[in-house]
Amino acid sequence: MTHPAQPKASHFINGEYVEDTAGTPIPVIYAATGEQIATVYAATPAIVEQALSTAKAAQKEWAKMTGTERGRVLRRAADIMRERNHDLSVLETYDTGKPLQETLVADATSGADALEYFGGLAASLTGEHIPLGEDWVYTKREALGLCVGIGAWNYPTQIACWKGAPALACGNSMVFKPSETTPLCALKVAEILIEAGAPAGVFNVVQGMGEVGGALVTDPRVDKVSLTGSVPTGKKVYAAAAEGMKHVTMELGGKSPLIIFDDADIDNAVGGAINGNFYSSGQVCSNGTRVFVQKGIKEKFLARLAERTGNAILGDPMDEATSFGPMVTENQMNIVLGYIEKGKEEGARLICGGARANMDGYYIQPTVFADVTDEMTIAREEIFGPVMSVLDFDTEEEVVARANDTEFGLSAGVFTKNFTRAHRVIGNLEAGSCFINSYNDAPVEAPFGGVKASGVGRENSKEAIKHFSQVKSVYVRMGDVEAAF
Ligand code: NAD
């Protein structure tokens, strides 16, 4: 019997499901059991061509509609997503292995927020009037044209919506390629947009690995590329986009610092560290994986952290009591286990976890290392799994310098009751998305993105509009033209 997660076909182009079984088969594996639940096929060159030519043709008419009309489509899509939240969350759990306890509140709901927010903004995307004596300049905020979205595997619904919603609000069309690891959810987003009244061809989904992403990025018809992925992929995609002078948004990896001063509320700080390391089993780009704890409270912090980490419920992700799911793939599990071994070898002190969980599926115990030093591999490289490194510090000046000593700059957090220190420290940290007495909140109203190697551009908020549109300025002369000859 066909599994309920199996989509009707692999791709969604011009308003309908499209199949081409000549492409490389991509198995979809449910991470909680290791069972294959679906198959899709990577896009062949013919499918890529169909998606790009359709999106190119659909964009002009979509951009001619009023912002109010485009916004209405997006807001209807948000309503449909919320009505179907349960089914979409189950699919997200099949796609990623993340527990339903999370997916019910963090995926289709977050996607719906983006559709609603950008739907609301679509009608007010205007230019300005610049008076110049009798003459004047007016500006128009115009769509970029055809945009390509490329997703990572940790938030397949959210990423499709965080890219699709602002792109469509501005009058662009999009071809979205999900991660080959999680190909299912974006197809539902495409289906819902059509149901909500989006013209066929405005939002298309094609499957495939890096080659398909590469074919999309290098096509001359494409005006913008928005990637969520790792830094090495980001460098390749950015370079390929630069060849064609295309706009880019790069949402890449991190190794973010979370700084806990000795006056912090310990339970809140422990809660922040748990949210910033173990949500989605640690597969979150903005995670605060270098937890700097001021020496005076270190042992108290570690004791409370170990106690609360012991309350994680590993189990069937479809059981809403489960609070901690598997790694997305066997490969990702092995990468993370490799880092755990490195941590042990390099002399970090294991506080809890430290091994694969004794159950089916790709589960790793939530793991905390203490006495981690700045040079250890687990303190330098992005692990993308449930491995928290706790480092000690003495002074503010020292911790800020150490926190910034990384190629990454996605996020940073500080826990302290001293508010002048909180703002001063955040002001000195090199990161794009920061938190004071909290960690990992990502409301659509707030800009999200990194500095340094963690990326270029911002998603969400009004900032995203700037990255999916461009300004045309028009000089209007009211009198005669003066010329030298
Ligand atoms: P990845 O870089 O391996 O792949 C990302 C996407 O890029 C996939 O869809 C992949 O098929 C595609 N791709 C690979 N090579 C390509 C190429 N040459 N041209 C075009 N496309 C190509 O990342 P992943 O393993 O899927 O995701 C994990 C990474 O994503 C982590 O580093 C994580 O930090 C990052 N991430 C960042 C954010 C953010 O918003 N900053 C969010 C989630 C994940």
Description:
The chain is an alpha/beta fold. It has two domains: 11-252 and 451-456 and 467-472, Aldehyde Dehydrogenase, Chain A, domain 1 (3-Layer(aba) Sandwich); 257-436, Aldehyde Dehydrogenase, Chain A, domain 2 (3-Layer(aba) Sandwich), CATH 3.40.309.10. Helix content is 39%, strand content 20%. The protein has helices at residues 45-64, 67-83, 85-96, 100-106, 108-121, 156-169, 185-195, 210-218, 231-243, 266-278, 298-309, 330-345, 377-380, 396-404, 419-428, 461-467; strands at 11-13, 16-18, 25-30, 35-41, 129-132, 135-143, 146-150, 173-177, 203-205, 224-228, 247-251, 257-260, 290-294, 349-352, 367-370, 387-393, 411-415, 433-436, 455-456, 469-476. Strands 14-15-16-13-12-17-18 form a seven-stranded mixed β-sheet, sandwiched between helices. The longest helix is centred in the first third of the chain and has 20 residues, at 45-64. The model has no long low-confidence stretch (mean pLDDT 98). Nicotinamide-adenine-dinucleotide (NAD) binds next to helix 8 and helix 9.
